[in-house]
Design brief:
It is found in: Cytoplasm. This protein is an alpha+beta fold. Bound molecules: 2'-deoxyadenosine-5'-diphosphate (DAT) and magnesium ion. 2'-deoxyadenosine-5'-diphosphate binds next to loops.
């Protein structure tokens, strides 16, 4: 059964471009409740572990560089069917393929710098959220 939470990061390009407010507005206007949130800077080890599944891919080094070049906004979001609905809201990995009105269509520059992360399963949402937040930081 689907749980009702997902994990997101507004990636370094979103922070650099001053898009945090606009993206959070879109997220909350789409019915997601913010359960936990912080500005945090991933270490190289954090980013390598987060994207471990892609460690053999040619873009892995660039991905880790990008994700560690400045702070990100990490958050846990709550809504019915959160994981799937949030993936729909952010749009396809490559912004060129993302549907009109999605966060990546509106705010992502490229496949490599695509503005926002959304968990791809309930299991990963729980793991990713627990990596960044203790129980006392979730409301
Ligand atoms: P998503 O972030 O949509 O879940 P993913 O898990 O397949 O996508 O990949 C993680 C991130 O890696 C993605 O947001 C951007 C980067 N990435 C994926 N495929 C890439 C590619 N072919 N070239 C460059 N970056 C890529
Ligand atoms: Mg993914």
């Amino acid at each position: 059964m689907a749980t009702n939470r997902t994990f997101t990061m507004l990636k370094p390009d979103s922070v650099e471009k001053g898009n945090i407010g606009a993206i959070l507005e879109k997220i909350t206007a789409s019915g997601f409740r913010i359960v936990a949130m912080k500005l945090t800077h991933l270490t190289t080890q954090d980013a390598q572990a987060f994207y471990e599944v892609h460690s053999e891919r040619p873009f892995y080094g660039e991905l880790v560089e990008y994700m560690t070049r400045g702070p990100v906004v990490a958050a846990i979001l709550e809504k019915d069917n959160a994981v799937e609905d949030f993936r729909t809201l952010i749009g396809a990995t490559n912004p060129d393929d993302a549907a009109e009105g999605t966060i990546r269509k509106l705010y992502a520059a490229s496949m490599g710098e695509n503005a926002v992360h959304g968990s791809d399963s309930d299991e990963n949402a729980a793991i990713e959220g627990a990596f960044h937040f203790s129980g006392r930081e979730m409301f």
